[in-house]
# Entry
Amino acid sequence: MSMPPPDPNHRWQPPYGPPPPPSSGSSTGVVVALAFAGLALYSVVNVIVGFFVFFAAAMGSNGSNILPVAVGTAVLALVGLGAGIALVIIRKPWTRGLGLGLMIGWALWSILSAGICTGLNPGLYA
# Structure
C-alpha cells in the first residue's frame, strides 16, 4: 500500500490551532511615558513647595525656621511617596507610570540635592 501524494493546496496547521493574536498595544510605553511625566510633575511641585518653604523660613525668626521646613518635608514626602504608592496600588498602566514617576522624582531630588530639596538633610533642622 502506498500513501497518496500530498495535496499542494493544503496548508499544514499545528494540532492546537493558530497562535493567539497579539494584544492591542503594549502598556510598557504608557508606563514609561507617564513615569517621565510623573518625574516632571514632582519636579514642578518640588520647586513650588521649595519656594514657599524657603520664603517662610526667611521671614521667620531664628527659632521658628524649623517648622516651615518640617511641613515642607512632610508635604513633599506625601506627594512623592504617598501619592506615588497609592497610584501604583491602583494597578492601571497610566496610574502605575505616574506613581513610579512621582517616587522616582522624590528619590532623584533627594539624592542629587543631598536631601536639601526634599528636607531630608539634617543640617536644615539644626
User: Anything to note?
Assistant: Residues 28-59 form the longest helix (32 residues). The chain has a mean pLDDT of 85. Residues 28-125 form one domain.
